[in-house]
Amino acid sequence: MSELPTTLTYYFPNRLVRILLLAMHETVGKNGVSAVLNTARLQHLLAQLPPPNFEPGLSFDEVGRLFQALEGVYGVRSGRRLSWQMGRSCFKYGMEGLGGVVGVADFALRFLPVSLRVHVGLEVLTEILNRYGDQQIVLGEDEQHYSVIMQRPGLCWNRHTESPACTLMVGLLEEMLYWVTRGQRFLVEETTCQACGDPVCTIQISKATMD
Q1: Closest to 86 (Cα-Cα) out of 174, 15, 152, 10
Q2: Which pLDDT tens digit goes with each residue over 132-173?
Q3: Is the pLDDT assigned to residue 99 strictly greater than 50?
Q4: Average pLDDT rounded to a whole number, residues 81-94
Q5: N or C of the chain: less Cβ packing under 10 Å?
Q6: Domain 108-209 adopts which CATH fold?
Q7: Which residues of 11-39 are buried (b: 16+ CB within 10 A; e: fewer)?
Q8: Closest of 159, 153, 148, 156 to residue 133, by C-alpha
């Protein structure tokens, strides 16, 4: 008799979970973090932050529960806004520790046209998220937009929502674009989401700046 197939469990590494929790502490404070983690049944994260390594940290299911709890504690509208703010903070904490590499990258990018800076930034961020964790993300492009297509998204895993829920990724992308373009802003919005029943999560980025 053949064995039944097992369901795979996907993970974010400890380093990315650590960045996520640092961003949450900055956004909602100690009491807010305690309320969210208790609601998400992730109390073990209250004692100390995960180590900055790439061992499996939280499963996609647990991260989905985390954002479900954030919206449960603060309400959907405010929870999504807080998730967006956490995404912007995640970029800052992700950049910390790179030291001179960041300075060299900043110096090199400033000599490239804006469109190429955006393209390079998207490719680098996608490569990092795909390499260090179990997400599957690809890039798309048409005349007016870049598309970040999350074929296996870790932020809304096993969630069921009425509107797109990956607002942390929107905030992360906005902050990355602001950095690589040295202060320019772009319209970034999630147009499809697996939590809403769509086959993939898609975040579109306008090629035209908002300035």
Answers
A1: 174
A2: 899 999 999 999 999 999 999 999 999 999 999 999 999 999
A3: no
A4: 95
A5: N
A6: Muramoyl-pentapeptide Carboxypeptidase; domain 2 (3.30.1380)
A7: bbbbbbbbbbbbbbbbbbeeebbebbbeb
A8: 153
- Share of residues in the chain with pLDDT > 70 (%): 90
Closest CA to 65 of 42, 96, 84, 47: 42
CB 149 within 8 A of CB 137: yes
Residue spans of the domains in the chain: they are 11-93, 108-209
Q: Are strands 186-192 and 145-152 parallel, antiparallel or unpaired?
A: unpaired
